[in-house]
């Protein structure tokens, strides 16, 4: 297991177990991961357009993408939550909702867009609760290995996000046994984060990590 894979798994576990509790840090981490992932996928095309190449240029593209994603996430916190909420909503609409109605066709994409819009609205208005869901989802995807470096490499080669997409209702082989690893981790993440709020641990974390637990839903005072 290489260092990048270990880093993705560790980042996934942090988001999974503590996402909403560390609030702005979780949003910045997701922004960094999304930006760095975009930089990784697009780096060859961007560097080629500028006539640059080499490992240093590639690393700079990934780092700049990550820092830009983190900065934009921090500056526009509510909107930054709405963006991944749209992505997660559209993802669930495509892989969970549409199979109930159709195997394909235009309606599949319409349902995906509507689900994404619903997710964005929820993410923007119910920021704290949406953050629990989003960070548990992203964290479970990374911690379970459903989204790994190899998938980003494949997306880079195809210049398409398709290799990064996965079936959230699928199973993963663990020690020769098929288990719904993503689903199990996702539920664990939801329970862990809700428990942190219910048991008052978020306030305690806030005394140690300045700014933690500051994200609130619109209209919420505490």
Strand content: under 5%
Termini, distance in Å?
Answer: 42 Å
Count of all domains = 1
Q: What class would the helix/strand composition place it in?
A: mainly alpha
Features:
9 helices; 222 residues; globular; single chain; 73% helix; mainly alpha; two-stranded antiparallel ribbon
How would you explain this protein's 3D organization?
Helix 2 packs parallel to helix 7, helix 3 (55-75) packs across helix 4 and helix 4 (77-101) packs across helix 6. By secondary structure, the chain is mainly α. It has one domain (3-208). The protein has a two-stranded antiparallel ribbon. Strand 1 (172-174) and strand 2 form a beta hairpin. It is globular, with a radius of gyration of 18 Å. It is 73% helix and 3% strand. The longest helix has 26 residues, at 24-49. The protein contains nine helices and two strands.
């Amino acid at each position: 297991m290489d260092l990048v894979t270990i880093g993705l798994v560790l980042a996934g576990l942090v988001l999974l177990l503590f996402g909403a509790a560390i609030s702005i840090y979780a949003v910045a981490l997701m922004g960094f991961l999304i930006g760095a992932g975009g930089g990784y996928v697009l780096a060859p095309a961007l560097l080629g357009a500028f006539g640059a190449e080499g490992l240093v240029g590639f690393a700079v593209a990934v780092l700049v993408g990550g820092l830009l994603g983190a900065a934009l996430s921090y500056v526009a916190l509510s909107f930054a939550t709405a963006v991944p909420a749209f992505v997660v909503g559209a993802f669930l609409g495509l892989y969970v909702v549409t199979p109930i109605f159709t195997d394909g066709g235009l309606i599949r994409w319409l349902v995906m867009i509507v689900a994404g819009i619903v997710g964005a609205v929820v993410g923007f208005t119910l920021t704290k609760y949406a953050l629990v869901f989003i960070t548990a989802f992203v964290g479970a995807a990374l911690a379970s290995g459903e989204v790994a470096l190899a998938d980003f490499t494949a997306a880079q080669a195809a210049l398409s996000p398709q290799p990064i997409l996965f079936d959230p209702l699928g199973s993963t082989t663990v020690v020769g046994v098929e288990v719904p690893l993503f689903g199990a981790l996702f539920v664990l993440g939801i329970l862990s984060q809700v428990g942190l709020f219910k048991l008052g641990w978020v306030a305690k974390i806030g005394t140690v990590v300045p700014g933690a637990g500051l994200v609130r839903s619109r209209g919420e005072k505490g």
